[in-house]
Amino acid sequence: MNLKFTGTRIFALSLAFIMMASLKVLGQQTMVLDEIIAKVDNYIILRSDMEKSYLEMLSRNDITGITRCDALETLVINKMLVAKAEIDSVMVEDGDVESNLDRRLQFFINQVGSEERLEEFYGKTIDQFKDELRESVKEQMVVEKMQGTITKDLTVTPAEVKKFFKTIPSDSLPFFSTEVTIGQIVKIPEPGEVEKEKIRTQLIAIRNKILAGESMATLAQQYSMDPSVRRNNGELGFFRRGDLAPEFEATALSMQPGEISMPVETDFGFHIIQLVERRGNTYNSRHILMIPVPSPADIKASRDYLDSLKTQIEAKTITFEKAAKEYSDDKATASDGGFLLDGTGAPRVSVEEIDPVLFFTLDTMKVGNITAPIDYRLDDGTQALRLIYYKDKVPPHQANLEQDFQKIYQATLSAKKNKILSEWFRKAQGDVYIDVDPEFDFCNLLKENY
Protein backbone atom coordinates (compact mmCIF):
# COMPACT_ATOMS: atom_id res chain seq x y z
CA MET A 1 0.00 0.00 0.00
CA ASN A 2 1.19 3.50 -0.77
CA LEU A 3 0.86 5.35 2.52
CA LYS A 4 2.24 8.72 1.43
CA PHE A 5 -1.11 10.39 0.96
CA THR A 6 -3.37 9.14 3.68
CA GLY A 7 -6.17 11.51 4.66
CA THR A 8 -4.17 12.44 7.73
CA ARG A 9 -1.13 13.32 5.68
CA ILE A 10 -2.93 15.23 2.93
CA PHE A 11 -4.97 17.39 5.20
CA ALA A 12 -2.67 16.63 8.07
CA LEU A 13 -3.57 18.47 11.19
CA SER A 14 -6.70 18.53 13.24
CA LEU A 15 -7.76 22.08 14.02
CA ALA A 16 -7.02 21.67 17.70
CA PHE A 17 -3.48 20.55 16.94
CA ILE A 18 -2.96 23.39 14.44
CA MET A 19 -3.83 25.86 17.12
CA MET A 20 -1.69 24.17 19.75
CA ALA A 21 1.34 24.16 17.49
CA SER A 22 0.56 27.68 16.31
CA LEU A 23 0.48 28.90 19.89
CA LYS A 24 3.89 27.31 20.44
CA VAL A 25 5.28 28.97 17.35
CA LEU A 26 3.69 32.29 18.24
CA GLY A 27 5.42 32.08 21.60
CA GLN A 28 8.86 31.65 20.10
CA GLN A 29 11.08 34.70 19.73
CA THR A 30 13.36 33.37 16.98
CA MET A 31 13.51 35.65 13.95
CA VAL A 32 13.08 33.93 10.59
CA LEU A 33 14.10 35.50 7.28
CA ASP A 34 10.87 35.16 5.29
CA GLU A 35 10.20 34.87 1.59
CA ILE A 36 7.59 33.53 -0.82
CA ILE A 37 8.45 29.97 -1.88
CA ALA A 38 5.23 28.97 -3.69
CA LYS A 39 2.11 30.47 -5.25
CA VAL A 40 -1.22 28.80 -5.92
CA ASP A 41 -3.46 31.19 -7.86
CA ASN A 42 -3.75 34.24 -5.58
CA TYR A 43 -2.46 32.40 -2.52
CA ILE A 44 1.14 32.45 -1.38
CA ILE A 45 3.20 30.14 0.82
CA LEU A 46 6.01 31.66 2.87
CA ARG A 47 9.14 29.90 4.00
CA SER A 48 7.96 30.51 7.57
CA ASP A 49 4.68 28.71 6.72
CA MET A 50 6.65 25.67 5.62
CA GLU A 51 8.84 25.75 8.72
CA LYS A 52 5.85 26.03 11.02
CA SER A 53 4.05 23.21 9.22
CA TYR A 54 7.20 21.10 9.41
CA LEU A 55 7.44 21.63 13.18
CA GLU A 56 3.77 20.78 13.57
CA MET A 57 4.16 17.54 11.65
CA LEU A 58 7.30 16.58 13.57
CA SER A 59 5.37 17.08 16.80
CA ARG A 60 2.86 14.38 15.86
CA ASN A 61 3.54 11.07 17.54
CA ASP A 62 2.13 8.99 14.70
CA ILE A 63 4.21 10.46 11.85
CA THR A 64 7.84 9.52 11.25
CA GLY A 65 10.31 10.35 8.53
CA ILE A 66 8.74 13.73 7.83
CA THR A 67 10.65 16.15 5.60
CA ARG A 68 10.17 19.77 4.65
CA CYS A 69 9.05 18.50 1.23
CA ASP A 70 6.12 16.77 2.95
CA ALA A 71 5.26 19.97 4.78
CA LEU A 72 5.45 22.06 1.62
CA GLU A 73 3.39 19.57 -0.35
CA THR A 74 0.67 19.61 2.30
CA LEU A 75 0.57 23.40 2.13
CA VAL A 76 0.38 23.41 -1.69
CA ILE A 77 -2.45 20.88 -1.64
CA ASN A 78 -4.34 22.91 0.97
CA LYS A 79 -3.94 26.05 -1.13
CA MET A 80 -5.20 24.13 -4.18
CA LEU A 81 -8.29 23.14 -2.23
CA VAL A 82 -8.86 26.71 -1.07
CA ALA A 83 -8.34 28.09 -4.60
CA LYS A 84 -10.75 25.55 -6.09
CA ALA A 85 -13.24 26.22 -3.29
CA GLU A 86 -13.20 29.89 -4.34
CA ILE A 87 -13.75 28.93 -7.98
CA ASP A 88 -16.56 26.51 -7.07
CA SER A 89 -18.13 28.90 -4.52
CA VAL A 90 -17.56 26.55 -1.58
CA MET A 91 -17.39 28.89 1.42
CA VAL A 92 -17.60 28.94 5.20
CA GLU A 93 -19.47 31.65 7.08
CA ASP A 94 -17.48 34.16 9.12
CA GLY A 95 -19.73 33.45 12.09
CA ASP A 96 -18.85 29.74 11.92
CA VAL A 97 -15.16 30.62 11.83
CA GLU A 98 -15.50 32.82 14.91
CA SER A 99 -17.44 30.14 16.78
CA ASN A 100 -14.86 27.52 15.88
CA LEU A 101 -12.03 29.81 16.90
CA ASP A 102 -13.72 30.62 20.21
CA ARG A 103 -14.21 26.93 20.98
CA ARG A 104 -10.59 26.10 20.19
CA LEU A 105 -9.25 28.98 22.25
CA GLN A 106 -11.53 28.03 25.14
CA PHE A 107 -10.01 24.55 25.03
CA PHE A 108 -6.53 26.00 25.53
CA ILE A 109 -7.73 28.41 28.19
CA ASN A 110 -9.15 25.43 30.08
CA GLN A 111 -5.84 23.59 29.71
CA VAL A 112 -3.77 26.38 31.27
CA GLY A 113 -6.43 27.44 33.76
CA SER A 114 -7.44 30.95 32.68
CA GLU A 115 -7.23 33.61 29.98
CA GLU A 116 -4.80 35.52 32.16
CA ARG A 117 -2.35 32.62 32.36
CA LEU A 118 -2.54 32.00 28.60
CA GLU A 119 -1.94 35.68 27.85
CA GLU A 120 0.87 35.92 30.39
CA PHE A 121 2.65 32.83 29.08
CA TYR A 122 2.63 33.92 25.43
CA GLY A 123 2.70 37.68 25.95
CA LYS A 124 -0.36 38.19 23.76
CA THR A 125 -3.99 39.07 24.38
CA ILE A 126 -6.83 36.75 23.40
CA ASP A 127 -7.79 39.20 20.64
CA GLN A 128 -4.24 39.08 19.27
CA PHE A 129 -4.35 35.29 19.27
CA LYS A 130 -7.63 35.37 17.38
CA ASP A 131 -6.33 37.86 14.83
CA GLU A 132 -3.21 35.78 14.19
CA LEU A 133 -5.01 32.44 13.99
CA ARG A 134 -8.20 33.46 12.19
CA GLU A 135 -6.96 32.97 8.63
CA SER A 136 -5.38 29.57 9.31
CA VAL A 137 -8.53 28.40 11.06
CA LYS A 138 -10.71 29.61 8.20
CA GLU A 139 -8.43 27.98 5.63
CA GLN A 140 -8.55 24.64 7.44
CA MET A 141 -12.36 24.83 7.61
CA VAL A 142 -12.51 25.53 3.86
CA VAL A 143 -10.11 22.65 3.20
CA GLU A 144 -12.24 20.27 5.25
CA LYS A 145 -15.45 21.46 3.60
CA MET A 146 -13.94 21.13 0.13
CA GLN A 147 -12.64 17.66 0.94
CA GLY A 148 -16.10 16.71 2.17
CA THR A 149 -17.66 18.07 -1.01
CA ILE A 150 -15.30 16.03 -3.19
CA THR A 151 -15.94 12.78 -1.31
CA LYS A 152 -19.62 13.41 -0.53
CA ASP A 153 -21.84 10.33 -0.05
CA LEU A 154 -18.90 7.95 -0.40
CA THR A 155 -19.47 4.52 1.16
CA VAL A 156 -17.87 1.08 1.08
CA THR A 157 -19.47 -2.37 1.18
CA PRO A 158 -18.51 -5.26 3.49
CA ALA A 159 -17.11 -7.01 0.40
CA GLU A 160 -14.81 -4.03 -0.25
CA VAL A 161 -13.65 -4.11 3.37
CA LYS A 162 -12.72 -7.80 3.09
CA LYS A 163 -10.97 -7.21 -0.23
CA PHE A 164 -8.98 -4.31 1.22
CA PHE A 165 -7.99 -6.36 4.27
CA LYS A 166 -6.65 -9.13 2.06
CA THR A 167 -4.33 -6.67 0.31
CA ILE A 168 -2.49 -5.94 3.58
CA PRO A 169 0.56 -8.20 4.00
CA SER A 170 0.30 -10.25 7.19
CA ASP A 171 3.57 -8.78 8.47
CA SER A 172 2.13 -5.27 8.02
CA LEU A 173 -1.05 -5.82 10.03
CA PRO A 174 -1.18 -3.43 13.00
CA PHE A 175 -1.00 -4.76 16.54
CA PHE A 176 -3.57 -3.29 18.93
CA SER A 177 -2.96 -2.94 22.65
CA THR A 178 -5.61 -3.76 25.24
CA GLU A 179 -8.94 -2.15 24.35
CA VAL A 180 -11.98 -1.60 26.50
CA THR A 181 -15.64 -0.84 25.96
CA ILE A 182 -16.71 1.69 28.56
CA GLY A 183 -19.75 3.88 28.92
CA GLN A 184 -20.74 6.78 31.13
CA ILE A 185 -23.90 8.46 32.30
CA VAL A 186 -23.20 12.04 33.31
CA LYS A 187 -25.25 14.23 35.59
CA ILE A 188 -24.44 17.92 35.92
CA PRO A 189 -25.87 19.23 39.22
CA GLU A 190 -28.33 22.04 38.60
CA PRO A 191 -28.53 24.97 41.00
CA GLY A 192 -31.81 24.93 42.87
CA GLU A 193 -34.18 27.85 43.30
CA VAL A 194 -32.44 28.97 46.49
CA GLU A 195 -29.16 29.52 44.64
CA LYS A 196 -30.90 31.11 41.65
CA GLU A 197 -32.72 33.54 43.89
CA LYS A 198 -29.42 34.60 45.47
CA ILE A 199 -28.09 35.47 42.01
CA ARG A 200 -31.25 37.36 41.03
CA THR A 201 -30.98 39.41 44.23
CA GLN A 202 -27.31 40.24 43.58
CA LEU A 203 -28.05 41.31 40.00
CA ILE A 204 -30.94 43.51 41.07
CA ALA A 205 -28.61 45.22 43.56
CA ILE A 206 -26.05 45.77 40.77
CA ARG A 207 -28.79 47.11 38.50
CA ASN A 208 -29.80 49.60 41.17
CA LYS A 209 -26.20 50.83 41.37
CA ILE A 210 -26.19 51.43 37.61
CA LEU A 211 -29.51 53.28 37.77
CA ALA A 212 -28.01 55.37 40.56
CA GLY A 213 -25.22 56.48 38.23
CA GLU A 214 -22.41 53.92 38.60
CA SER A 215 -20.69 52.72 35.42
CA MET A 216 -22.01 49.44 34.03
CA ALA A 217 -18.60 48.81 32.42
CA THR A 218 -16.86 49.15 35.79
CA LEU A 219 -19.41 46.94 37.52
CA ALA A 220 -19.10 44.37 34.73
CA GLN A 221 -15.35 44.19 35.37
CA GLN A 222 -16.08 43.71 39.06
CA TYR A 223 -18.92 41.19 38.95
CA SER A 224 -19.44 39.59 35.51
CA MET A 225 -18.49 35.93 35.07
CA ASP A 226 -18.29 36.25 31.30
CA PRO A 227 -14.60 35.54 30.47
CA SER A 228 -14.66 38.17 27.72
CA VAL A 229 -15.37 40.98 30.19
CA ARG A 230 -11.66 41.69 30.70
CA ARG A 231 -11.32 42.93 27.16
CA ASN A 232 -14.77 44.31 26.38
CA ASN A 233 -16.18 45.66 29.68
CA GLY A 234 -19.27 43.52 29.07
CA GLU A 235 -20.02 44.98 25.63
CA LEU A 236 -20.67 42.12 23.20
CA GLY A 237 -20.59 43.95 19.89
CA PHE A 238 -23.10 43.63 17.06
CA PHE A 239 -24.94 40.35 16.55
CA ARG A 240 -27.66 39.31 14.16
CA ARG A 241 -31.04 37.97 15.18
CA GLY A 242 -30.70 34.33 16.14
CA ASP A 243 -27.02 34.53 17.11
CA LEU A 244 -27.49 34.81 20.88
CA ALA A 245 -29.68 32.96 23.37
CA PRO A 246 -33.39 33.51 22.57
CA GLU A 247 -34.19 34.88 26.05
CA PHE A 248 -31.27 37.30 25.85
CA GLU A 249 -32.19 38.49 22.38
CA ALA A 250 -35.90 38.92 23.14
CA THR A 251 -35.07 41.09 26.14
CA ALA A 252 -32.40 43.16 24.39
CA LEU A 253 -34.62 43.90 21.39
CA SER A 254 -37.57 44.88 23.58
CA MET A 255 -35.63 47.75 25.19
CA GLN A 256 -34.64 51.26 24.27
CA PRO A 257 -30.92 52.14 23.99
CA GLY A 258 -29.45 52.70 27.44
CA GLU A 259 -32.21 50.83 29.26
CA ILE A 260 -31.18 48.19 31.83
CA SER A 261 -33.16 44.97 32.11
CA MET A 262 -34.19 43.00 35.15
CA PRO A 263 -32.34 39.66 35.56
CA VAL A 264 -32.84 37.33 32.59
CA GLU A 265 -32.14 33.59 32.75
CA THR A 266 -30.52 31.72 29.83
CA ASP A 267 -28.63 28.44 29.56
CA PHE A 268 -25.48 30.40 30.45
CA GLY A 269 -26.74 31.83 33.72
CA PHE A 270 -28.44 35.11 34.70
CA HIS A 271 -27.86 38.45 32.95
CA ILE A 272 -28.76 42.06 33.32
CA ILE A 273 -28.71 43.54 29.83
CA GLN A 274 -28.29 47.00 28.38
CA LEU A 275 -29.15 47.70 24.74
CA VAL A 276 -26.36 49.88 23.37
CA GLU A 277 -27.45 50.35 19.76
CA ARG A 278 -29.68 48.76 17.16
CA ARG A 279 -29.03 48.74 13.39
CA GLY A 280 -31.69 47.01 11.37
CA ASN A 281 -31.49 43.29 12.17
CA THR A 282 -28.30 43.67 14.21
CA TYR A 283 -27.84 45.00 17.71
CA ASN A 284 -25.08 45.75 20.18
CA SER A 285 -25.60 45.02 23.86
CA ARG A 286 -23.77 45.04 27.14
CA HIS A 287 -24.38 42.56 29.93
CA ILE A 288 -23.29 41.38 33.35
CA LEU A 289 -23.40 37.61 33.71
CA MET A 290 -23.61 35.75 37.00
CA ILE A 291 -23.75 31.97 37.20
CA PRO A 292 -25.38 30.23 40.15
CA VAL A 293 -23.33 27.43 41.72
CA PRO A 294 -24.99 24.19 42.85
CA SER A 295 -25.24 23.89 46.62
CA PRO A 296 -24.20 20.74 48.51
CA ALA A 297 -27.88 19.81 48.60
CA ASP A 298 -28.11 20.18 44.80
CA ILE A 299 -25.05 17.95 44.36
CA LYS A 300 -26.51 15.34 46.71
CA ALA A 301 -29.74 15.33 44.70
CA SER A 302 -27.76 14.55 41.53
CA ARG A 303 -25.83 11.81 43.33
CA ASP A 304 -29.08 10.26 44.56
CA TYR A 305 -30.48 10.47 41.03
CA LEU A 306 -27.55 8.51 39.59
CA ASP A 307 -27.72 5.99 42.45
CA SER A 308 -31.35 5.35 41.60
CA LEU A 309 -30.51 4.98 37.92
CA LYS A 310 -27.75 2.49 38.75
CA THR A 311 -30.21 0.41 40.77
CA GLN A 312 -32.64 0.30 37.83
CA ILE A 313 -29.88 -0.74 35.41
CA GLU A 314 -28.65 -3.51 37.71
CA ALA A 315 -32.24 -4.68 38.19
CA LYS A 316 -32.53 -4.78 34.37
CA THR A 317 -35.60 -2.52 34.35
CA ILE A 318 -33.68 -0.35 31.88
CA THR A 319 -30.53 -0.97 29.86
CA PHE A 320 -27.43 1.15 30.36
CA GLU A 321 -27.58 2.28 26.71
CA LYS A 322 -31.20 3.42 26.97
CA ALA A 323 -30.54 5.19 30.28
CA ALA A 324 -27.55 7.01 28.80
CA LYS A 325 -29.50 8.13 25.73
CA GLU A 326 -32.41 9.41 27.80
CA TYR A 327 -30.78 10.77 30.93
CA SER A 328 -27.07 11.55 30.43
CA ASP A 329 -26.12 15.22 30.36
CA ASP A 330 -23.07 14.47 28.19
CA LYS A 331 -24.55 14.87 24.72
CA ALA A 332 -21.28 13.81 23.05
CA THR A 333 -21.62 10.25 24.37
CA ALA A 334 -25.36 10.03 25.10
CA SER A 335 -26.29 9.52 21.45
CA ASP A 336 -23.97 6.49 21.36
CA GLY A 337 -25.52 4.87 24.40
CA GLY A 338 -22.97 6.52 26.67
CA PHE A 339 -20.03 4.67 25.14
CA LEU A 340 -16.68 6.28 24.39
CA LEU A 341 -15.70 5.88 20.73
CA ASP A 342 -12.32 5.49 19.10
CA GLY A 343 -11.20 7.49 16.06
CA THR A 344 -13.10 5.15 13.72
CA GLY A 345 -16.40 5.49 15.57
CA ALA A 346 -16.18 2.06 17.19
CA PRO A 347 -17.28 1.78 20.86
CA ARG A 348 -13.89 0.47 21.93
CA VAL A 349 -10.88 2.49 23.01
CA SER A 350 -7.27 1.69 23.75
CA VAL A 351 -6.31 1.82 27.41
CA GLU A 352 -3.39 3.96 26.27
CA GLU A 353 -5.78 6.69 25.12
CA ILE A 354 -8.06 7.07 28.13
CA ASP A 355 -7.32 9.60 30.83
CA PRO A 356 -5.37 8.40 33.90
CA VAL A 357 -8.29 8.86 36.30
CA LEU A 358 -10.55 6.67 34.20
CA PHE A 359 -7.74 4.15 33.69
CA PHE A 360 -7.23 3.69 37.43
CA THR A 361 -10.99 3.50 37.97
CA LEU A 362 -11.20 0.61 35.51
CA ASP A 363 -8.26 -1.04 37.23
CA THR A 364 -10.42 -1.45 40.34
CA MET A 365 -13.44 -2.83 38.44
CA LYS A 366 -14.55 -6.13 36.95
CA VAL A 367 -15.97 -6.38 33.45
CA GLY A 368 -19.75 -5.96 33.63
CA ASN A 369 -19.70 -3.71 36.70
CA ILE A 370 -21.04 -0.18 37.14
CA THR A 371 -19.49 2.26 39.60
CA ALA A 372 -21.26 4.29 42.20
CA PRO A 373 -21.56 7.98 41.22
CA ILE A 374 -18.07 9.48 40.83
CA ASP A 375 -17.19 13.18 41.09
CA TYR A 376 -15.35 14.63 38.11
CA ARG A 377 -14.93 17.78 36.03
CA LEU A 378 -16.01 18.41 32.46
CA ASP A 379 -13.47 19.85 30.01
CA ASP A 380 -14.66 23.36 30.80
CA GLY A 381 -14.23 22.80 34.54
CA THR A 382 -17.92 22.28 35.31
CA GLN A 383 -18.55 20.07 38.33
CA ALA A 384 -20.35 16.84 37.45
CA LEU A 385 -20.93 13.24 38.51
CA ARG A 386 -21.00 10.09 36.43
CA LEU A 387 -21.59 6.36 36.44
CA ILE A 388 -18.95 4.27 34.65
CA TYR A 389 -19.94 0.99 32.98
CA TYR A 390 -17.12 -1.44 32.19
CA LYS A 391 -18.76 -3.52 29.47
CA ASP A 392 -15.93 -5.39 27.80
CA LYS A 393 -12.18 -5.88 27.53
CA VAL A 394 -10.27 -7.08 24.46
CA PRO A 395 -6.70 -8.29 25.06
CA PRO A 396 -3.80 -7.20 22.83
CA HIS A 397 -4.10 -8.71 19.35
CA GLN A 398 -3.16 -8.38 15.71
CA ALA A 399 -5.79 -6.74 13.52
CA ASN A 400 -8.46 -9.11 12.22
CA LEU A 401 -11.85 -8.73 10.57
CA GLU A 402 -13.81 -10.31 13.40
CA GLN A 403 -12.59 -8.02 16.18
CA ASP A 404 -11.62 -4.91 14.22
CA PHE A 405 -14.15 -4.61 11.41
CA GLN A 406 -14.96 -0.97 12.19
CA LYS A 407 -11.29 0.04 12.12
CA ILE A 408 -10.71 -1.81 8.85
CA TYR A 409 -13.90 -0.30 7.43
CA GLN A 410 -12.58 3.19 8.14
CA ALA A 411 -9.20 2.34 6.61
CA THR A 412 -10.99 1.05 3.50
CA LEU A 413 -13.10 4.21 3.32
CA SER A 414 -10.01 6.37 3.76
CA ALA A 415 -8.22 4.53 0.94
CA LYS A 416 -11.24 5.00 -1.31
CA LYS A 417 -11.39 8.69 -0.45
CA ASN A 418 -7.70 9.06 -1.20
CA LYS A 419 -8.19 7.51 -4.62
CA ILE A 420 -10.99 9.96 -5.42
CA LEU A 421 -8.91 12.84 -4.05
CA SER A 422 -5.94 11.73 -6.14
CA GLU A 423 -8.11 11.87 -9.26
CA TRP A 424 -9.44 15.25 -8.19
CA PHE A 425 -5.94 16.66 -7.63
CA ARG A 426 -4.77 15.43 -11.02
CA LYS A 427 -7.65 17.24 -12.74
CA ALA A 428 -7.51 20.32 -10.48
CA GLN A 429 -3.89 21.03 -11.31
CA GLY A 430 -5.08 22.19 -14.71
CA ASP A 431 -7.55 24.63 -13.16
CA VAL A 432 -5.19 26.51 -10.85
CA TYR A 433 -1.84 28.21 -11.31
CA ILE A 434 0.93 26.57 -9.28
CA ASP A 435 4.44 27.98 -9.08
CA VAL A 436 7.02 26.55 -6.67
CA ASP A 437 10.49 28.01 -6.17
CA PRO A 438 13.08 26.01 -8.18
CA GLU A 439 14.89 25.46 -4.88
CA PHE A 440 12.32 22.75 -4.18
CA ASP A 441 12.36 21.01 -7.57
CA PHE A 442 13.96 17.99 -5.89
CA CYS A 443 10.78 17.48 -3.88
CA ASN A 444 8.82 16.42 -7.01
CA LEU A 445 5.72 17.92 -5.48
CA LEU A 446 2.37 16.46 -6.59
CA LYS A 447 4.08 14.15 -9.08
CA GLU A 448 4.62 10.83 -7.35
CA ASN A 449 0.94 10.00 -7.05
CA TYR A 450 -0.49 12.09 -9.84
Secondary structure layout plus pairing:
Elements: H1 7-10, H2 15-27, E1 36-40, E2 43-46, H3 47-58, H4 68-87, H5 94-112, H6 115-122, H7 126-150, H8 158-166, E3 175-176, E4 179-187, H9 193-211, H10 216-223, H11 229-232, E5 235-240, H12 246-253, E6 264-266, E7 269-279, E8 282-290, H13 296-314, H14 320-327, H15 331-334, E9 349-350, H16 356-363, E10 374-377, E11 383-394, E12 397-398, H17 401-428, E13 434-436
Antiparallel strand pairs: 1-2, 1-13, 3-12, 4-9, 4-11, 5-8, 6-7, 7-8, 10-11
Helix pairs in contact: 2-5, 2-7, 3-4, 4-7, 5-7, 8-17
Domain PpiC: 177-277, 280-375
Keywords: Isomerase, Rotamase, Signal
Organism: Imperialibacter roseus
Provide a concise account of the structure shown.
This protein has 450 residues and is an alpha+beta fold.
Structural features, described:
By secondary structure, the protein is an alpha+beta fold. It folds into three domains: 7-159 and 402-443, Triger factor/SurA peptide-binding fold (Orthogonal Bundle); 176-190 and 295-398, Chitinase A, domain 3; 193-290, Chitinase A, domain 3, CATH 3.10.50.40. Helices cover 48% and strands 16% of the residues. The protein is built from 17 helices and 13 strands. The chain has helices spanning 7-10, 15-27, 47-58, 68-87, 94-112, 115-122, 126-150, 158-166, 193-211, 216-223, 229-232, 246-253, 296-314, 320-327, 331-334, 356-363, 401-428; strands at 36-40, 43-46, 175-176, 179-187, 235-240, 264-266, 269-279, 282-290, 349-350, 374-377, 383-394, 397-398, 434-436. The strands form four sheets. It has a four-stranded antiparallel beta sheet with strand order 9-4-11-10. Mean pLDDT is 87; it is low at 1-32. It is an enzyme of class 5 (isomerase). It comes from Imperialibacter roseus. InterPro entries: OMP_Chaperone_SurA, PPIase_dom_sf, PPIase_PpiC, Trigger_fact/SurA_dom_sf. Its EC number is 5.2.1.8.
